[in-house]
């Protein structure tokens, strides 16, 4: 039977830092993460890596996942370079490997 999952996409310091109602959004994401974990689901964080926009360049402060996210060591992280989380990433394979 397939497992449930949450894909947390681009919830990074740069985009979330000045987002309208950002703290409320983070709380809602964390609430959903908790429910997914309770059902033995999979938590996947999708992290945007931009090659020319400095705040989202890999390694810069804005690139990191937002520190208020409820991220656990067993969660999966996928880095992407385009707006499509599946394009040239292992996301589809990771989902299949984890029965999502």
Explain the overall architecture:
This protein is an alpha/beta fold. The protein has a domain of 61 residues: Rossmann fold. The protein has 3 helices and 3 strands. The longest helix is centred in the N-terminal third of the chain and has 17 residues. It is globular and about 40 Å long.
The CATH homologous superfamily of the domain at 8-17 and 50-100: Isochorismatase-like
* Name of the CATH architecture of the domain at 8-17 and 50-100: 3-Layer(aba) Sandwich
Average pLDDT across residues?
92
- Beta percentage is 15-25%
Estimated structural class: alpha/beta
Order of helices and strands: EHHEEH
- CATH topology of the domain at 8-17 and 50-100, what is it called? Rossmann fold
Distance between the termini: 9 Å
Helix percent reads 25-40%
Write the layout of secondary structure elements.
Layout: E1 5-9, H1 13-17, H2 22-38, E2 42-48, E3 76-80, H3 91-97
Parallel strand pairs: 1-2, 2-3
What features would you highlight for this structure?
3-stranded parallel sheet, 17% strand, alpha/beta, Rossmann fold, 100 residues
In a nutshell, what does this entry contain?
The chain is α/β, with parallel strands linked by helices and 100 residues long. It has three helices and three strands, in the order βααββα. The chain has a domain at 8-17 and 50-100: Rossmann fold, CATH 3.40.50.850.
């Amino acid at each position: 039977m397939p497992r449930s999952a949450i894909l947390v996409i681009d919830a990074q310091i740069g985009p979330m830092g000045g987002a309208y109602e950002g703290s409320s959004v983070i709380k809602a994401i964390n609430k959903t993460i908790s429910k997914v974990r309770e059902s033995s689901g999979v938590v996947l964080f999708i992290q945007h890596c931009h090659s020319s926009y400095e705040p989202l360049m890999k390694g810069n402060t804005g690139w990191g996942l937002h520190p208020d996210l409820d991220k656990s060591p067993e969660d999966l992280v996928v880095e992407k370079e385009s707006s499509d989380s599946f394009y040239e990433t292992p996301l589809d394979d990771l989902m299949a490997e984890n029965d999502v």
